């Protein structure tokens, strides 16, 4: 027989109102709407929900998981995976809607990583944090904004999470915070960060964010870092019809870049994130890489998925390096115009190949081919 005790639980607070109905089975929500929860009485007091004589059952209560960046491409695949075993609390920008999660029980918190008060309130009672939010840009003009959001925002969240006694903190970083090579060799978690001289704001800000998380882990926060690669799947606006997939479809890509990159299906990477949340070691980082492909190989995979034509030739590396320098001079005068920026062109000449042996060994995880992710992304862009 479950043990019970009579308690009064006030849920909600200044700036944060929790709709308790989202945590009830669908069959019980109608009764909740009429003010009855399992035979108990619920009433609205000053905008918050007050439950009277709330029974306390012996069954374990699912932990609350606070997710930042809930509107992101990755969150679209990750949040449904977090539903099992977690009560979700999602951070979204003010006024932003999440129709993709309409059928998923969750609390909504409006705010930004700069809003310390909102974050502190949102972290009350939280057991786990999954930190996805970041500004992703390869525009030189966005460097300071990325340092403020990606680095300072992560430091703020990690400190507040430690103060709130959060039991697990998963930081979603990037392979761009690891390192690169001029040669086709695989790098790993121990590769020294060498993006600094290139002055890429995204790489520098995400590397700085990792250092803040590791510092918090040294101070007692149970934190784990994962480094995903370039991901393909439905919902990524950056790889939409006016970007790489569409360009290949229209035959606009005449030369393949001379470097190489690591790519993966977003679904596989999100499985790795769940594995790291559950089994990752405190203070460790895990590369969640997929396939290491040359620029030409990636374009051939995309062409096969979208029915387009891949280029037959690869541009000389020296040509891309020159083009990057000239484009940077132009950007200083007129500003950058994504998706092609000097930083993107410079990256295309590098090899960003990685080994995921550590994640495979410690997390019992492995990514499959990227093709399914490319196909899913294209189906959403062109349903026909």
Describe the overall structure.
This protein is of the alpha/beta class. The protein has 2 domains: 7-54, no CATH class; 64-298 and 346-381, NAD(P)-binding Rossmann-like Domain (Rossmann fold, 3-Layer(aba) Sandwich). Helices cover 36% and strands 20% of the residues. The chain has 12 helices and 18 strands. The strands form 4 sheets. The protein has a 7-stranded parallel beta sheet with strand order 7-6-5-8-9-11-15, sandwiched between helices. Strands 10, 12, 14, 16 and 18 form a 5-stranded mixed beta sheet that branches. The longest helix has 21 residues, at 143-163. It is globular and about 60 Å long. The N and C termini lie far apart (56 Å). The model is unreliable at 1-45 and 47-52 (pLDDT under 50).
Radius of gyration, in Å, reads 23 Å
Task: Give the proportion of residues in helices.
Answer: 25-40%
Total beta strands: 18
Q: What shape does the CA trace take?
A: globular
CATH classification class of the largest domain: Alpha Beta
State the separation between the terminal residues, measured CA to CA.
56 Å
Strand proportion, as a percent range, falls in 15-25%
CATH superfamily of the largest domain: NAD(P)-binding Rossmann-like Domain
Alpha plus pi helix count? 12
CATH architecture of the largest domain: 3-Layer(aba) Sandwich
pLDDT averaged over residues: 87
List the helices and strands in order: EHEEEEHEEHEHEEHEEHEEHEEHEHHEHH
